[in-house]
Amino acid sequence: MTAASPTHAAPARLTRLAWASVGIAALVLGLKWAAYLLTGSLALYSDALESIINVAAAAAALIALRVAARPADDNHPFGHSKAEYFSAVLEGVLIVLAALAILWEAGPQLLSPAPVELPPLGLALSVVASVINGVWASRLLAAGRQHRSPALLADGKHLMSDVVSSVGVLAGVGLARLTGWHVLDPLLACLVALNILWSGWHLMRDSVGGLMDAGADAGTQARIRELVAEHAAGALEAHDLLTRTAGRLTFIEFHLVVPGSMTVAEAHAICDRLEEVLEAEVEGARVTIHVEPQDQAKHSGVLVL
Q1: Any coiled-coil ranges, and where (predicted)?
Q2: Most exposed among 25, 45, 55, 62, judged by the fewest C-beta atoms under 10 Å?
């Protein structure tokens, strides 16, 4: 028996956040690019280059959220929620490409470093851009966790790594200017690139796990077992619990063993009760229950007392 509730569309709030991300990413890119032009710093150039990726990633997240909001259809009976994982994987790939471009640019300058100019306006623009990124990254991470959105979480994690890189760049560029060690500028650009690579790898790893139908986390699975045990009165046991996550959705399947003398209507009532409580307690739950007679009992898995 399967829960018949329709696939929920992505909240309008997430779409608004995605639109805002595109605008903010474009603003930050403009500020960082201006800072690079004013200073000529390779480290600030690497920081600005990553912001180009931020704009592309924000646009990809917006598209993914719109696709994920589409209801299930004949070709996609389980909905379109996995579209968000493609956005996160794409963001990871773009991050890696940006890091390689930075390393390509910084390599020659490690051997022949050039002096760095530090006009106050250039530094101020970079600081303002980093503050904006930090505030917005926190906002995206909070919304992504609340709504279990892989696209927003990927965007927020990327922006937060960008903030860490920017703080390191600003500190290093200042040291290069004060100490006269001009090699610090391309060296910091390389360190930024390595940090970006690390961030990109984690984004791709986590997103590929979603595309590969990773199961729900251990805490969620334990909660599902508790709920089944508490609300399956009349049944004998439940076993073969399977879960998989797809964006905001959690698909839950298990076998429910009932007495052989129980009527279909009585078994159906137990399933309805379980579906209702699981959907209320597990956000985005989609429940499938296979009812079996008592001679199929395994005496293992989720035992109903």
Answers
A1: none
A2: 55
Give the integer Cα–Cα distance in Å for 9 and 65: 9
The pLDDT value recorded for residue 209 is: 66
Q: Are 169 and 47 in contact (CB under 8 A)?
A: yes
- Look at the pTM and tell me if it is higher than 0.90: no
Is there a shared CATH topology between the 12-211 domain and the 218-303 domain? no
- Determine the residue type at 297: A
Task: For residue 296, give the DSSP letter.
Answer: G
| Closest of 216, 221, 228 to residue 273, by C-alpha | 228
Give the distance between the most distant pair of CA atoms in the chain. 87
In tens, the pLDDT along 151-199 reads 788 788 778 877 877 777 777 777 777 777 777 777 877 777 787 777 7
Name the residue among 170, 214, 218 with its Cα closest to residue 192.
170
Class of domain 218-303: alpha beta
- The residue among 158, 255, 150 whose CA lies nearest residue 210 is 150
Helices (H), the chain: 12-39, 42-68, 83-111, 120-147, 150-179, 184-211, 218-231, 264-281
The residue ranges of every structural domain in the chain are 12-211, 218-303
- Residue 8, pLDDT score: 42
Where residue 240 falls (left for φ over 0; alpha for ψ -120 to 50; beta otherwise) is left
N residues, the chain: 305
HSE, side-chain direction, 13 A CA sphere, residue 208: 8
CA-based R_g, the chain, Å: 25
Give the integer Cα–Cα distance in Å for 299 and 12. 45
192, 46 contact by CB (below 8 A): yes
CATH fold label, 12-211: Alpha-lytic protease prodomain-like (1.20.1510)
